């Protein structure tokens, strides 16, 4: 019989590189104190053998697992999916592995899986808390483990720090842009109101419209899909209440708006301007290209991880570190050019 495959050890790495076990350990944990030539030789041995750290053994020695737990609802929607990817990338760059756990949006399921993640030995947990259904998971995790929630609004869980993108600001950017193009009547097709992003965007729309004295109306809620953008726009046409501009809660709903307007022979932006939110991949290739708001997902992932690591390591968060990041307006051809005077 063939000998069973054995996972390479630090001793194997040391033997191949011609160094001591302690030198390999230093390369892995304090590489800056090892001479470059020696460090390179050890790294070559690690690559050749396919050596990976035994995190379970390291956790027994240090009481730290270098494992970050992440809870999501498994949504394929652009915002939550991009946030999840950004956090994973930031964790890898910092030398942490991520245990990704998907929870059911129902309360009992969120509590149960949240408890399972606690038993994994994760040093801390990041929760992508996009909607109310994730709040029980946040509460369960926060009972015994440092937790950072990534959300547009603070879940009602004491002691949980929240980071996110300023969705209200993004909505205000859209409204102010539309006003600068000459629009005086705007309808916001809002998203599902159990989602924190949708609530914040609606709040931002109302604040901006009220402050600018616009003729502003809210329709919906939609469910983030092109279908509801299409149906809500058809209803506006049927009622004879089409505004000068439509601000959809996300780009997917905006796609439905564009389709409905085209079906009725209406021109964008000449008859009705259209704006979305998220800067979804492909938004610039729509006809016309879609005005929207871009969110700094990569920066958000790094911010969430940095705040969690500060909690884990007992470090003070730098005073200039924000809780929320600003989004960026991306003006394209679905809205009119801004007036210069």
Describe the structure.
With 341 residues, the protein is of the alpha/beta class. It has three domains: 10-52, Orthogonal Bundle (434 Repressor (Amino-terminal Domain)); 63-165 and 297-325, Rossmann fold; 167-294, Rossmann fold, CATH 3.40.50. The protein is 44% helix and 15% strand. It has twelve helices and twelve strands. The chain has helices at residues 10-17, 21-29, 36-49, 55-62, 78-93, 107-118, 135-142, 167-180, 196-212, 226-239, 251-263, 297-313; strands at 67-72, 97-102, 124-128, 147-150, 161-165, 185-189, 215-219, 245-248, 273-275, 292-294, 324-325, 328-330. The protein has a six-stranded parallel β-sheet, with helices on both faces. It has a four-stranded parallel β-sheet with strand order 7-6-8-9. A two-stranded antiparallel ribbon has the order 10-12. Mean pLDDT is 86; it is low at 56-63. Residues 8-62 form the HTH lacI-type domain. This is DNA-binding LacI/PurR family transcriptional regulator. It holds the Pfam family LacI. Keywords: DNA-binding, Transcription, Transcription regulation. It comes from Brachybacterium sacelli.
């Amino acid at each position: 019989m063939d000998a069973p495959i054995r996972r390479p050890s630090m001793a194997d790495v040391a033997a191949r590189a011609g160094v001591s076990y302690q030198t390999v350990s230093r390369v892995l944990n304090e590489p800056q104190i090892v001479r470059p030539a020696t460090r390179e030789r050890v790294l070559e041995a690690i690559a050749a053998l396919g050596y990976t750290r035994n995190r379970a053994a390291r956790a027994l020695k240090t009481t730290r697992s270098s494992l970050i737990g992440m809870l999501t609802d498994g949504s394929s929607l652009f915002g939550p999916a991009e946030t999840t990817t950004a956090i994973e990338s930031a964790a890898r760059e910092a030398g942490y592995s991520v245990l990704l756990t998907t929870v059911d949006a129902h309360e009992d399921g969120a509590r149960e899986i949240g408890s399972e993640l606690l038993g994994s030995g994760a040093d801390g947990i990041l929760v992508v808390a996009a909607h109310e259904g994730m709040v029980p998971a946040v509460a369960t995790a926060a009972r015994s483990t440092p937790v950072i929630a990534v959300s547009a609004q603070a879940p009602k869980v004491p002691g949980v720090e929240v980071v996110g993108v300023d969705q209200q600001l993004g909505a205000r950017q859209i409204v102010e842009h539309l006003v600068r193009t000459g629009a005086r009547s705007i309808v916001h097709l809002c998203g599902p109101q159990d989602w924190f992003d949708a609530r914040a965007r609606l709040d931002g729309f109302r604040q901006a419209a009220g402050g600018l004295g616009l003729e502003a109306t809210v329709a919906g809620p939609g469910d983030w899909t092109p279908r509801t953008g299409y149906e809500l726009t058809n209803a506006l046409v049927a009622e004879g209440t089409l505004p000068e501009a439509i601000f959809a809660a996300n780009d997917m709903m905006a796609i439905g708006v564009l389709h409905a307007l085209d079906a009725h022979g209406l021109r964008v932006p000449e008859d009705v301007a259209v704006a979305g939110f998220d800067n979804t991949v492909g938004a610039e290739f729509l006809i016309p290209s879609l005005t929207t708001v871009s969110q700094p997902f990569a920066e958000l992932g790094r911010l969430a991880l940095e705040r969690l690591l500060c909690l884990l390591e007992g470090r003070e968060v730098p005073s200039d570190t924000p809780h929320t990041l600003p989004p960026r307006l991306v003006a394209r051809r679905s809205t009119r050019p801004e007036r210069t005077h």
